[in-house]
Amino acid sequence: MSLFEGTKGSSYEILGLRVEEGITRRLQALGLNDGTVITVLNRKKNGALIIRVRGTRLAVGRHISQGIEVKGVSA
């Protein structure tokens, strides 16, 4: 499933990044690598997500969140 389908308050493990190469490199530099656990903190009306990655809050838009492949993990 994509991160965009995730629910507020749930945690997910990243399986892969399916976005443009430049965006993929930037996300990896921010710590979004395969196996990293992230938590969805909030969903905005415009489709953006606020996520927690390694103790840092990030906002990602709809296009990017639809390209992040994840699986659910138990908290």
Structural notes for this entry:
The protein is of the alpha+beta class. 19% of the residues lie in helices and 39% in strands. It is built from two helices and five strands; from the N terminus they run βαβββαβ. Strands 4-3-2-1-5 form a five-stranded antiparallel sheet. The radius of gyration is 11 Å and the shape is globular.
Mean pLDDT: 93
Strand fraction: 35-45%
User: Radius of gyration over alpha carbons?
Assistant: 11 Å
Characterize the largest beta sheet: strand count, sense, and whether it forms a barrel. Answer: 5 strands, antiparallel
Q: Give the strand order, joined by hyphens, for the main sheet.
A: 4-3-2-1-5
Distance between the termini: 18 Å
Helix/strand/pairing category? alpha+beta
Number of strands: 5
> Which consecutive residue ranges, at least 5 long each, have pLDDT under 50?
none
- The helix/strand series, from N terminus to C terminus, equals EHEEEHE
Put simply, the count of helices is: 2
Give the CA-based shape.
Answer: globular
Please give the share of residues in helix: 10-25%
